[in-house]
Every structure is written in structure tokens, then in C-alpha cells.
Amino acid sequence: MVLMCETGSTRPLDAPKALHHLKATPHNVHWGYFDASLAPALIIDSGDLIQAESLTHHAGDDPALLMDEAMHQIWRSIPEADRNPGVHLMTGPIYVRDAKPGDMLEVRYLTMTPRFRFGSNLAAHWGQLYSDLGERERVTIYGLDPATNTAEAVYAYDVHEKYLTPGRITNCPECDRKPALAGVRVPVRPHLGTAGVAPDAPGRISTIPPGLHGGNIDNWRIGAGATMYYKVQVDGGLFSIGDPHISQGDGEISGTAIEASLDVLFQVILRRDFTFRSPLLETPDHFIVHGFGDNLDVAAKEASLDMLSLIKETGLSADDAYSLLSISGDLGVTQVVDGTVGAHMKIRRNILPSPRKS
Predict the structure, then answer these.
(1) Sign of the C-alpha dihedral, residues 255, 257, 258, 259?
(2) One Pfam family this chain carries (predicted)?
(3) C-alpha 319, offset from chain centre
């Protein structure tokens, strides 16, 4: 089961069979969960393109800048009591015909376009330094400059109650606005914080922790030009996207990125010629694997073991692969704020030997 000679970033775009438009409407979203019993919002064939809307649940941090009437309709249609057990507003699920448990979904993310020219960062009570910084929550609204592909803070305000209601709407015209981050610009790199297949488990599965199904990985590299591989767990895969971001650092230590809605164009290809245990990311330059755990030691070890397994597919021995990881693999922290923390290991594609023939 050799992956590396057949992966997506090294091949031209497969000719799509169809282009589907998946708008975020009350009937096409699910808030806070994956669920294997959900009816599909869209049914596709392998190779189809999907133009989908992905909405941030943090749009209420400034509804005047981050929401339109279509979004207000969703907020009105899904009561707060039905936004659980997680927090992310997911578009989907997408059913891929003939996809069976054990197959792989190759998802090629082609474009990610901001819906608005603003986004929000919340320093939240689940952030790493919440207790160290006075146990207060703070919202910073960022504006995007398409000409320079950067974002800068527009204003900030303190929140005097914890963010406990997904999609909470703050009355920003009356909040105490403060200047923030004068003279600072950050690169805009749109990506999906949460995407994945439905886990093979009964009932609602929270979108908050990442796992082998994908979910809330929060790796800023999952953007346009990247390809993700997700192992199918239930018939059809039931793939959903959400938690869109326009910028984030490794760690996501305040608890959020710059949260901003995106329009996402992607292609889904059903693969049966290889398998991989955990969500695998391929960029033009790197292979990146993800590990998850209750602490960073566990997550880092999981990422390292999965990368070891991937490299061994080239024909290297475990000992040789281990040495290569130590001298050329980059082990990093993906996020520390989702309960289940994440680590990632990346290695440059061009240093790996040609895969062995099976």
C-alpha cells in the first residue's frame, strides 16, 4: 500500500465529473457535532468538485461586520439548546457514493475565499494563559487588506461573561472599544480549523476534540493548495467542513484563531489503493501527520509513530526511518486548547527515497 508515488499534490487536478454548490442554510448545517445518522446535505461521486460555504460560529463577536441575513437566518433557526455538544457550525455532511469504512477520502482544497473582510479573535476561558492574564475574555476584531494579503486589528473589547453559548451575539455598537496592536500586520492564510468524516459511534460526537476522523485539528496549513486524507469510518464518509480561519499560529494559545467565514472550493476523490491510520496532510513541499492525546507527550509520540510508518513505505527500515526523523523531521505543537491537544510531524518530500514497488 504505497502512498507517496500516488498522492494528490504531485498530480494535476483530476477532471471533475460535476460541480456542486453547497450553501450554508438551516438544512445544510449541523452545529457542534458529527453524527453518523445525519441525512446527507449533498451526495456526490468520486472526483466531483464542491463549492461550499463555511461559517464561523464567532460571527456574533461583531454581527455588523461578520454576519449577513443568510447567517442571521441560521442563528434564528437553530436554537441555542441545539448547538451541542461542541461549538463549531459545520456545513454538510457530504455523502460520497461507494465510500466504505476503511477507504480513504482524498480532499484537495483548491481555493478558500473570505466571505467578509473582517474576522474575530477571542482570548477565551479555554485559552492557555487565561488564568495568567487575569481571567478575562477579550475580543479583537481584525480587518483584511486583500491588496497586501494581511490583516490588522480594528479594535478590541473586553467581555465580562464567559463564552459559553456557541454563536453568542455581542452588542458591539455598545461595547467599550479599545485600540489594539497599533502598527502590527499579520499574514492572511485562510484554512479550515475543523473538517472530517463522521466517526463510527452512536449519537452526536463533539466537534471540539480532534481525532482519527479529523475534526478540530486546527493546523493552519490545511488551506488552498493542500490535500488532506481522511479514513472513512461509515458508509459514504459523511464529510463536513467548519471552523474557518484566516490566520493562526501553531498552538492557537488564546483559544481561537482569526475566525472568519470562508467560501471553499475542493475536490473529493475516493481512494482504495492505500490506507493510513490518522489524518494525513500533503502540501507541495511536505508530508505532515497529526497526533492527538490528553497531553503533548502522548500527541507528539502518536505523530512520530505515524510518520515512522509513512516513511517505512519507501522501503527504509524502522531504524533508518527513526534516524531520518531525528535529523530532518520537524515536530511541532498544533494546538493546546481543545481538550485533546495536537502535535504534528512534517518532513520534506524531496528528501525521501522513491517508494518501493509492492
Answers:
(1) negative
(2) FmdA_AmdA
(3) 33
How would DSSP label each residue in 151-206? EEEEEEEEESS---STTPPP-GGGS--B--STT--EE---EEEEEEPPPSSSS-EE
Torsion of CA 53, 56, 60, 65, to 10 degrees: -60
Taking only the tens place, the pLDDT of each residue in 117-135 is 999 999 999 999 999 999 9
Read off the amino acid at residue 40. Answer: P
Task: Report which residue type is found at 78.
Answer: I
Say how far apart CA 109 and CA 195 lie, in whole Å: 11
- Dihedral pair phi/psi, residue 350, rounded to 5°: -75, -5
Domains and CATH numbers, the chain: 1-353 (2.60.120.580)
Q: Are 94 and 238 in contact (CB under 8 A)?
A: yes
Between CA 281 and CA 235 the distance in angstroms is: 22
Contact 296, 336 (CB under 8 A): yes
Number of helices and strands in the chain (H, E)? 4, 22
Sheet with 330-335, strands from edge to edge, namely 19-22, 49-54, 262-271, 104-114, 227-231, 280-282, 286-293, 341-348, 330-335
Contact 67, 194 (CB under 8 A): no
* DSSP-based three-state secondary structure for 338: coil
Give the integer Cα–Cα distance in Å for 121 and 248: 10
| Exposure class string for 233-251: b at 16+ Cβ within 10 A, else e | bbbbbbbbbbbbbbbbebb
pLDDT tens column, 138-157: 999 999 999 999 999 999 99
Judged against a pLDDT cut of 90, whether residue 176 lies above it is answered with: no
Query: Rounded distance, CA 295 to CA 272, Å?
Result: 33
pLDDT at 14: 65
Is the pTM higher than 0.90?
yes
When computed from its CA atoms, the radius of gyration of the chain, rounded to whole angstroms, is: 20
How far from the centroid of its chain's Cα atoms is residue 89's Cα?
12
Indicate the pairing of strand 205-206 with strand 49-54.
unpaired
CB 135 within 8 A of CB 126: no
